[in-house]
Amino acid sequence: MGTSELWREFAGSPYTHPQIPYVGQAGQRGGGERLPDYPVVADVREYGAVGDGVTDDAPAINRALAAAGERGGGTVTVPAGRYLINDVIRIGHSDVVLRGAGSGRTTLYAPRDLTELIGPYGPRDGGRKSSWSWAGGLLWLCPQDRWAALTDAIRAGRSPHEGWTGNERDEWQPLSALAPAARGDRTVRAADVSRLRPGQLVLLQLADDADHTLLAHMAGDGPGTATYDWTGKTKLTSYLPYEWPVRIVAVDADTGTDAAGEGGTVPGRVTLERPLPLDARPEWSPQLTTLVTPLTGSGVEALTLEAAETPQPPHLLDTGHNGVVLQCAYDCWADDIVARHVDNGFGLVAASACTLRRTRVAGRGAHHPYCCREGSHDNLVEDFVIERRTVPAPEGTQLHGVNVEGLSSYNVWSRGRMETGTFDTHRGLPFAAVRTEVTVANDGRHGGDGTAGPLYGARFVHWNVTVTNERAGLIKIDEIAPYSATVGISEVREFDQIDVPDFEGELHTRSEYYGSPEAVSPVNLYEAQRTLPH
Fold first, then answer.
1. Contact criterion met (CB below 8 Å) for 489 and 520
2. Where are the alpha helices (DSSP H) in 228-379?
C-alpha cells in the first residue's frame, strides 16, 4: 500500500488544494468524537407517556421536550417500549436531547404522514407535486419560530423559503463588510468589528454578479464555466446569495489614534472557526450578517422512528412518511437512529456543522434515504447504512441515495454501507463534497431539473469506494465533475452512465488507484484530514 500522491499534495496545502476540499472540521463542534452528554431533566412517562403502542404518546413527549427547553435544556429520556405518535415530535429549543434506550429497544411508531398532520405541501412552481418529497420529518429538529413560520405558511397554502434567512430573505441585519480574502483564509479584515465577538454565530454572505462569476467560482473557474449558459437557471439562482454560517473565534480591533473609521466604525480582524469556503471578492459584496436564530446543541439518540408500512408513493408524490430532519440547525446531531418504512429518511435542510452518526434507513424503501439541501454546509454523516428494500420498488417510484444539492458545500459521507441507492448529486451546483470508505450497490438515479443548473461544482472527491455491481454512474466522476478527484474506486463498467459533463473543455480532474480501493492510503480521507493541525 502506497501513500496517495494527491494526499501528499493536499497535506502540504490543505486549505487551498484545487481538487480536494478541507473537511477536517466537518460535523458537530468541529467533528469531535464525543457528543455532548447533558443531565437528564425529564422522563416522558412523567408527562403521561405510556409506551404500550396503543396510547397516543406524542402530546406527552412534546410536553416533556418543551418543558426541558423552557428550563434551559437537558436530556429527555424515552424508556424501552413502543410509543404511538399521532403528531410531529418537535425539538424546538437549543441544548435539548431526546434519548431512547437504544434503536433496538425504543420505537416511535407514526401511522400518520405529514400531509395528514400539517397539510398538503405544494412545490414552489405549483402543480400537483408534493414538497414533502424532500422536506419535513416526523421527528423535526428546528427552532420554534422557524417551525411555526414554515408550518403556518404550508397551512395557508404558501411555499415558504426553507433556508437560513427566512421566508422573504429579510430577517438578517448586516454586521460588517469584509475586505478581499482567499479561499482557505481563517482570518479576514472587517470594516467594523464593533458588533462582533468571540463565540458569535454569524452568516457569511456572497452575492453573485450579473455575469455569474460567483457560480463560476463554485465550479472551479475552469474554461467551461465561461461558456456555460447560466440564464434560465431560476431554481439555482433562487439559492443565492451563498450563505455560510460560522462561529467567530477571535476579534482584534485596530488600535491607535487613526484606527476609528467613518461613522464610528471600528475596523479590525476576525478569525473564524473554519477556513473560508470560497474567495471573498469585492464584486460579490462579501459581508458578515446576523442569521435566523438557529437550533444549537440539540440532538436525538438511541431510538427507531417507524412509519406505517405503506407502498412507496410515485415519484414526487410523497405524502410525508418522513424520518428525522435537522432544519436551521447548527452543532446538532442524531446518533443510533433507525428510520423504517419512510418516504425520506434523514434530512439536513439549511443545517450546518451537524453530525449524523450510526444511522440506518430500513424497510420498504425510501425516495431520499439521506437528503442534504438548501445551503447545508460542513455536515458529517458517518457509519451509515441504507438497507436493501424489503419489498420491490413499485412502478413509477425513484430511489436516489445520499443526496446533496442547493449550493451545499463541505459535507462528508464516511464509512457507509449502501445496499441500494447511489451518490445522488441533485443539481443545484453543490460543491466541495467528500464520500469516503463507502460500499455501494449502485442502483439509484440522480434527480434535479434543468433550472437547478449543474450537477457538480468543484472539489467533489470519491475516495475508497467499492461498487458491488460494477455500475459507474455517479461514482466514477473524473470525466464529469470539474476540479474533482476519484481515488480508489473499484473497477466499474459503463452500463448506463446517467450523468454527463455540464461544462465543456478541460475539467482539471484527477484519478488515482482506479480498480484498487484496498490499496489506497489513507483509507479514509475525512479521518486523515482530522489528524492535520487546524
1. no
2. 234-238
